[in-house]
């Protein structure tokens, strides 16, 4: 294709992306050499914790053409997810008997929603140019999605390590199409965090150990989602009532004053999880958990870790007979992991003034 045709195609791709519900689409080359050393240092320091997949693919994460041979461009897309009719997150966090679930997980599993739209976009490109080599990614392979999105002009990496955008804050998902089409690339945006350190200061576990550096082993999202075993005892009180993920660094970010709510119904609240009570959720059987959370990203952690997380939150709640009774009902749970966290929570309930 001629350069003029490629420029026209790039404009069409962005238009088609908006028609599919994306807030914006950008295009970058695959040169991530500037980020490769930083990634390796992060891995060497063990900040990825048990997320072995972060180190399992060698340089494929920072060299897109090694992951998908023939790749010369990456099409990045943003999709807003903040539920428009959800309970105020600050009110939920301030109610110690309520369960806080990260806002991204209140609706449908974003993997399917995003992947289907990216696939549709890639196929739409195919109807215009004919056969082309591409592969779609939605947080499902060794991809440096924030770096690629920043290179494509969709925003800049904030000090909390998430992508920020002046018109949309950070309440959005990212997805990519690796392609062999030599499309014109977009200019990256300069950072706009300035001297602000709000996200670093607010982190309950001080997981943001330096600007732009996250020690995942301390991050509540890691502890409640990625960690398979016991949550470190010293960190449990810091989790508060957060049972799946954490949004504190986003809630305090000044740029999220400009964030947009989700336009897609897929991200509307399900099962009342925006403000459910801990005792209510702790009573769910494994069947309840699997049935009610079908199609939700939460289902991937399984019922055992669901109970583990809620037990910690109940241990952090004000002492109350209903809370102690709920924990007591799980004292003899078949899982050693659950029993251990229940015992810790009961001890907290009985000793907290």
Describe this structure in words.
Strands 1-2-7-4 form a 4-stranded antiparallel β-sheet, sandwiched between helices. It is 38% helix and 11% strand. The chain has a domain of 161 residues. It is built from 14 helices and 10 strands.
What is the spatial order of strands in the main beta sheet? 1-2-7-4
Structural class: alpha+beta
Cα-to-Cα separation, first versus last residue: 72 Å
Sequence of secondary-structure elements: HEHHEHEHEHEEEHEEHEHHHHHH
Give a count of the beta strands, DSSP E runs of length 2 or more.
Answer: 10
Overall pLDDT level? 96
What is the number of helical segments per DSSP (H or I, 4+ residues)? 14
**Nearest-angstrom radius of gyration?**
21 Å
Poorly predicted segments = none
Could you say which overall geometry the principal axes of the C-alpha atoms support? elongated
Main pleated-sheet profile: 4 strands, antiparallel
Relative strand content: 5-15%
* Share of residues in helices: 25-40%
Binding site for [4Fe-4S] cluster 2: 203, 219, 246, 249
Binding site for tRNA: 228
Binding site for cob(II)alamin: 61, 139, 163, 174, 221, 246-247
Subunit structure: Monomer.
């Amino acid at each position: 294709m001629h350069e003029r045709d490629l420029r026209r195609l790039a404009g069409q791709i962005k238009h088609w992306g908006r028609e599919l519900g994306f807030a914006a689409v950008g295009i970058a080359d695959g040169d991530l050499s500037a980020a490769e050393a930083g990634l390796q240092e992060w891995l060497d320091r063990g900040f990825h914790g048990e997320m072995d997949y972060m180190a399992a693919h060698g340089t494929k994460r920072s060299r897109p053409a090694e992951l998908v041979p023939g790749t010369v461009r990456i099409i990045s897309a943003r999709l807003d997810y903040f539920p428009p009719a959800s309970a105020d997150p600050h009110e939920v966090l301030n109610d110690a008997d309520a369960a806080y679930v990260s806002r991204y997980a209140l609706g449908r599993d974003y993997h399917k929603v995003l992947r289907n739209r990216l696939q549709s976009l890639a196929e739409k490109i195919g109807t215009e140019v004919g056969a082309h080599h591409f592969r779609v990614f939605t947080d499902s392979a060794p991809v440096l999605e924030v770096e690629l999105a920043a290179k494509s002009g969709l925003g800049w990496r904030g000090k909390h390590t998430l992508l920020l955008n002046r018109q949309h804050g950070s309440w959005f998902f990212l997805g990519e199409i690796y392609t062999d089409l030599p499309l014109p690339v977009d200019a990256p945006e300069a950072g706009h965090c300035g001297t602000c350190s709000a996200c670093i200061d607010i982190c309950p576990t001080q997981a943001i150990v330096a600007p732009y550096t996250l020690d995942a082993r301390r991050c509540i999202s890691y502890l409640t989602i990625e960690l398979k075993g016991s949550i470190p005892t010293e960190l449990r009180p810091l989790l508060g009532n957060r049972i799946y993920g954490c949004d504190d660094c986003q809630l305090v970010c000044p740029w999220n004053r400009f964030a947009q709510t989700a336009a897609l119904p897929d991200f509307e609240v399900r099962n009342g999880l925006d403000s459910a009570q801990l005792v209510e959720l702790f009573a769910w059987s494994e069947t309840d958990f699997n049935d009610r959370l079908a199609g939700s990203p939460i289902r991937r952690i399984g019922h055992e870790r669901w109970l583990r997380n809620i037990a910690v939150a109940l241990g952090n709640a004000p002492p109350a007979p209903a809370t102690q009774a709920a924990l007591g009902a799980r004292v003899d749970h078949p899982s050693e992991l659950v029993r251990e966290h229940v015992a810790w929570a009961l001890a907290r309930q009985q000793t907290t003034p």
